[in-house]
Amino acid sequence: MSTTWQERFAELLAGNHAASGDPVDAGAQLVVQEADGTEVFRHALARHHRTEEGDANLIWIRPLVGGSSTPDLGYVFNLNVARRRALHWTEGRLDDNGDVVLHLVSGEIARIQPAEGEQLAELQRWDHFLDRLTREEETALARLDADSWHGQFS
Predict the structure, then answer these.
(1) Domain encompassing residue 122
(2) Total structural domains in the chain?
(3) How many whole angstroms separate alpha carbon 151 and alpha carbon 21?
């Protein structure tokens, strides 16, 4: 049975592709390129996503931006900066490397692939940061249904 790009997308985000078997050792990063191949965006992705009800070609994700080390709290994320983003796609597929390739309505190409280097380190800092949130706050983030954050770390 072959894997669909949607299944691979979920697998990458969850870290279910870790060689160690531990999802904390793996995750996904988003790389966006202009049509000419120029890279314009590269960030780790939080471990949740949501397809828009009523529009199967719109996926909500959370790129991990806005993280920084503070003297008092350690590494934290500004949750109004690390907000949900939309991938509005026209075509999706798996490439030969197992990366998910989405052709976006904007003309850009989004590639979701295993996180590595600094992006994997940022995802691991995010995972640790989530321990500071209440269960309700973490659930609210995972819903990916709001563009702003009114709780702690905003």
Answers:
(1) 5-141
(2) 1
(3) 33
Residue 85 · residue 106 · CB < 8 Å: no
User: Nearest-CA neighbor of 4 among 90, 79, 98?
Assistant: 98
Helix/strand/coil for 10: helix
What residues pair up with 30 in beta bridges, in sequence order? 43, 112
Q: Which residue has the tokens 């806005």?
A: 66
- Residue type for 79, please? L
- pLDDT tens digits, one per residue of 1-55: 567 999 999 999 999 876 776 666 789 999 999 999 999 999 999 999 999 999 9
Which CATH number goes with the domain that contains 72?
Answer: 2.30.29
Q: Which pTM was predicted?
A: 0.92
Residue whose C-alpha is closest to residue 45's, from 30, 60, 55? 30
3-class state of residue 122 by DSSP: helix
Distance CA 86, CA 25 (A): 26
Q: Is residue 87 part of a domain?
A: yes
Other beta carbons within 10 Å of 47: 19
